[in-house]
Design a protein that fits this description.
Layout: H1 3-27, H2 38-63, H3 68-98, H4 104-129, H5 138-166, H6 175-185, H7 187-202
Helix pairs in contact: 1-2, 1-3, 2-3, 3-4, 3-6, 4-5, 5-6, 5-7
């Protein structure tokens, strides 16, 4: 594990922490637990998440000494989590400021939040996960990234929108929480698709 991996892990951890705290602040009234100290939770997130990311990257770097793909995937996962934190953070900010949590405008919000997360994904994966620092063919590379991410975008928005707009909230869940559940449902598929798409199509050396 190099110095750049340590620094990158800490920065990714702080990004995740910041957006997680912002998201939980928005949802605090929805998931309020009497007597719970939110300040302590924020502090634990701010310290604990970067620490866990560093440990995770270190462990996968050891596995990656034999098969480099393990280290790449190890770096890809916290980036994916940071993308998710940004995605959810932007989505909830738009919902909070507009008061809209369903319908066509929700799909527009979901698309905007996904695009913000996508830019974060491109920069981190290009320069850290797959170490693709060269500028030769960067235009073609970016087009491939847009295509792979575009397919992920369709999967992400379609699954989230279907759940939110066509399935009623289960067990009396509030519309805002249901919107977040809909967004979460598409994450696993998109992460797997993006990793292999980026590795074998976009940043393949």
């Amino acid at each position: 594990m190099k110095k750049i991996d340590l620094i990158s892990s800490i920065v990714i951890g702080l990004i995740i922490s910041a957006f997680a705290i912002a998201l939980l602040s928005v949802l605090e009234s929805e998931i309020n637990v009497p007597g719970f100290n939110t300040t302590l939770l924020w502090l634990l997130i701010l310290i604990g998440v970067p620490f866990l990311v560093v440990i995770w990257v270190y462990l996968t770097s050891r596995l990656g000494s034999r098969r480099h793909v393990f280290f790449q995937f190890g770096k890809f996962i916290p980036i994916g989590i940071s993308n998710t934190a940004i995605d959810f953070g932007v989505l909830n900010l738009l919902i909070l400021t507009s008061g809209v949590d369903k319908g066509l405008l929700f799909s527009v919000f979901k698309g905007a939040s996904f695009l913000c997360a996508g830019m974060n994904s491109y920069l981190w994966n290009k320069f850290w996960t797959f170490d693709s620092r060269g500028t030769a063919g960067i235009g073609r590379q970016f087009v491939k990234f847009i295509i792979v991410s575009g397919i992920g975008f369709v999967i992400n928005v379609a699954v989230a929108s279907f759940i939110v707009n066509f399935i009623e909230p289960i067990g009396g869940i509030s519309p805002i929480l249901w919107a977040n559940i809909g967004a979460l449902a598409s994450i696993v598929i998109v992460i797997i698709w993006n990793f292999f798409g980026y590795k074998f199509l976009v940043f393949k050396k």
